[in-house]
Amino acid sequence: MTRGATMRILIAEDNPAVGEIYQMVLTACGHHVELVTTFDEALRALKNTEHHAVITDGHYPGGLPDEPAGLRLLDVCQRERIPALLITGDEQLALTANGRGHWFMLKPVMVPDLMGWVDGMQTLWGMP
Question: H or E element: which one contains 33?
Fold first, then answer.
């Protein structure tokens, strides 16, 4: 089921079942996936390992009252020039992310849509 070059993808998701589904789909396509559950873990992962892309939930530990963790991570990725995708069921958060120039998908996410975004990131990185 490999689709192209291998990417290193960071997934920030506090729901283990959801994170494992993303991980299973992406690893089945040949990608290396690192799964974290908090904002602090995501920052450490980005500092310690080069990632080609980040997929983040909207709300998980590490958010602030007026700044959810997913939005904070998107801003970090933007500064570091790492493509990042917000996956959320919170329409207002999705609109805020979009207004800041971030990519988003509303839950429930279909596998072909997720893989379409990953394929686009491979093109962005110049990977076959």
Answer: strand 32-36
